[in-house]
Amino acid sequence: MDKSRKGVRLLVVAISTLTFSSIALGVDVKTSLKTEYSDNITKTENHQVDDFEHSVNLFISTEDRYGKFDNSLLADFSYKHYQHDTFSNDLETELKWDGVYHILPNFFTWDIRDEISEVVINTAQVNTPDNRERRNVFSTGPRIDYKITKLDSLNLSGLYQRTDFQTEGADSDRLRADSSWSHVFSDRSTGGLNYRWSKTEFSRGRNIYNAEATVFTKLSNLQNTLDLEYGLVDVKSKDTNDQQDTDSSTWDARYTRRIDASSNLSLSYLREVGDTSTSFDALVDGSYIDISDIDIVRVTEWGIDYTKSFSSRSRASVRLYDDEVVYLETGDVEERSGIDIRLTRPIRPTLSVNFDANYEHSTFKDLDRKDDRYDVAIGLSKSFYKNLSLALETGIEEQDSSQPLNDYTEWTISAELTYIPPL
Fold this sequence. Notes:
5% of the residues lie in helices and 68% in strands. By secondary structure, the protein is mostly beta strands. It has a 20-stranded antiparallel barrel. It starts with a helix and ends with a strand.
């Protein structure tokens, strides 16, 4: 069965299954049809190809937390068809399901989680369907929450995690053990200690061991929240011919301030160490881990976020970020820094205009290459009824590289009809 027919069948099965679930559990569903034209869909400087991308989209959200078994689901299915066959038709899936079985409520629980996502294979190449593949991460294990005193808590957990890639990435099995002690100092401050150990076995014969100890605290008042965590980590990588040992520090620092009723400011600094199969919390701005090889990875990121709402129902947000990905065994380093600006302004009660702008500077030190990418889009959104809307958008994306082969300019225009069925 080819990818196109398989994708259609999967989408039909998903719609049928989740429609039935909506009757039983109460599910929020959103559907849409979208067509987008691109004058350079392969994002190349030479031999530019234009094409139409037609997609059928289904978004599902549900949460059930009132019984012995709590679960939540976020799923986004998008079946894509390329009119001129530039890429193969495919069903792209973003799914996150969390389940918690309360064996002994408030003491002993069992966690189950599954996450499906589309990930980039080679981070130095443009983000097109040919450079993406599906990753499935399934994890399960027990957790114990024990109240030592009114002010002290002990948390113990074990986890088995299986990571599968569609084609390119190295599949892996991970075993992890976590222990945490926390103490309440006051109604506005807490702190404690964490210890985490894990062993990851890759399908290509490599084993990676990770041991991390951290100290953490949280301080808050009516307008400010500060979360701090500092740790030391030791990572060992072993195969039949080689062994490498890496020591590093880790950070997770977040400060949030509620400036007034309509605006918020947050600052963050994160530093994590893992491997190429790890889902890094720090990578929130479109940066990716290169999964074409197995390596120990150190990720560092800082960010500044500001959001503002206006009396006219307009909204604005600005984000500045800078991140660094270091592949510690090969020595490869990738750096990205940029700014995102988003504005939404209602023109009429049922009509609004949206504006997005992004600039990102990227450095690939092993390739001796620097890229500057600019992306601007403007769109209109019209609501016809409570559950039917139409969005029109046009945008341009341009990349200037120190290696001209990686230059490109792409112009797009799209129309999307969205329907939210009353369930």
